[in-house]
Amino acid sequence: MAVRVQREDFDCGAEIAALTAGRTEIGAVVTFSGLVRDSGGLASLELEHYPGMTEKALAAIEAEAVSRWELQASLVIHRYGRLAPGDRIMMVATASRHRQAAFEAAEFLMDYLKSRAPFWKKESGPDGGRWVDATESDEAALARWK
Amino acid sequence: MAVRVQREDFDCGAEIAALTAGRTEIGAVVTFSGLVRDSGGLASLELEHYPGMTEKALAAIEAEAVSRWELQASLVIHRYGRLAPGDRIMMVATASRHRQAAFEAAEFLMDYLKSRAPFWKKESGPDGGRWVDATESDEAALARWK
Amino acid sequence: MSELRVRYFAWLRERVGESSETVETGAETVRGLVDELSAREERYALAFADLSAVRVAVDEELADLSAPLAGVREVAFFPPMTGG
Amino acid sequence: MSELRVRYFAWLRERVGESSETVETGAETVRGLVDELSAREERYALAFADLSAVRVAVDEELADLSAPLAGVREVAFFPPMTGG
């Protein structure tokens, strides 16, 4: 169970390997990776966050996932700073005996992280900068976990 | 969109990187990795498959996923042969603009692969060999995709 | 009479004692083939004793016991699949 | 009167023109603080013009406008979060 907030890139495969090393009771690992998506003319993406609160919010979300599903291991990594199209933004990984728990917990982590962790995205392109709006569907996604 | 059936191990991180390289329209990548789980005294797991049919069955399952969700890329790798506890058995990866499609398609691939791809597992332990039974829950998992 | 390749996997392979064989058969369906083989030797009768635990593929496509054998090259018998 | 650290993120930071400041306030709730700041200078009034688009954290925990300020060290204002 770990949370990391960092400027540096990370290696999904190495993270999965570290999560599961020597853990033969794990049968299923689900990962989600978020990438900087260019829907047209994106030059860069600036990720701002709230140091201190970010780590606490992510740890609270992860603790909630651990209380709801039987997880052998979990991990949340989220970057901040300036990123280019195609760059990795974040990943979550969940490891469990069976696939159902791993899938559900990963989706739960993503849904909460999207609208409850203090990150904000500003896109820069040819027309200047634009703060990415939160979407109603992200807020609505939380309803299924109540 | 690719399917590989192989004896050799694979590298999840390298597979994700290859899937998304230069693809800036991808925002979300979900992976599932299946590992050899030891629920007590497992010495090895032998994975038998039906060469020829396996590739066709996996390709058909993947084609169905691609027809149901808007995927930018997908991958199924499944190993066969003798594996040890903790070894990787298989992975699926799905890449999409948004997380919902990537999650759903990965779960769909896993549900179908579990009970529609011709693989069979034999566990070897101190009491000899035992063919792993299919579970009713695996068959039931298909119902939600009808 | 036609000639078929018949394949067996997992515990069906172990009970029959072959992974693959060529069979001369007059059966019109997979079920007819099962009956013919079961009548032929005890090991087949044992392998096919509980058909609810047997799955079938015809020319590498999942099928069922009522599938016709006309024009078919290969039939495979195996237990429910356990991939993933 | 008490002394608070007030932080701003994303476009709230840009509109206020500060990422962090120390504020002397007599307000009893976050809403009172918003009103005080908005009355003080135009840039605050602009930043807080649409409170439905503003989220609040009190001592690094999500809160709402009615949250009391007694004993609080830090209040943060920001738009809805867009992580992931």
Folded structure, characterized:
The complex is a heterotetramer, with two copies of chain A (146 residues) and two copies of chain C (84 residues). Chain A has 146 residues and is α+β, with helices and mostly antiparallel strands. Chain A has one domain (2-143): Molybdopterin biosynthesis MoaE subunit (Aldehyde Oxidoreductase, domain 3, Alpha-Beta Complex). Chain A has helices at 12-20, 53-68, 99-116, 136-141; strands at 2-6, 28-35, 44-49, 73-79, 81-83, 88-96, 119-125, 128-131. Chain C contains three helices and five strands; from the N terminus they run βαβααβββ. Chain C is α+β, with helices and mostly antiparallel strands and 84 residues long. The mean pLDDT of chain C is 97. Chain C has one domain (2-78): Ubiquitin-like (UB roll) (Roll). Chain C has a five-stranded mixed β-sheet with strand order 2-1-5-3-4. Classes of the chains: A alpha+beta (146), C alpha+beta (84). The A-B interface holds A 11-17, 20, 22-39, 42, 85-86, 97, 99, 102-103, 106-107, 110, 141 and B 11-17, 20, 22-39, 42, 85-86, 97, 99-100, 102-103, 106-107, 110. Strand 2 (28-35) of chain A pairs antiparallel with strand 2 (28-35) of chain B, so a sheet runs across the interface.
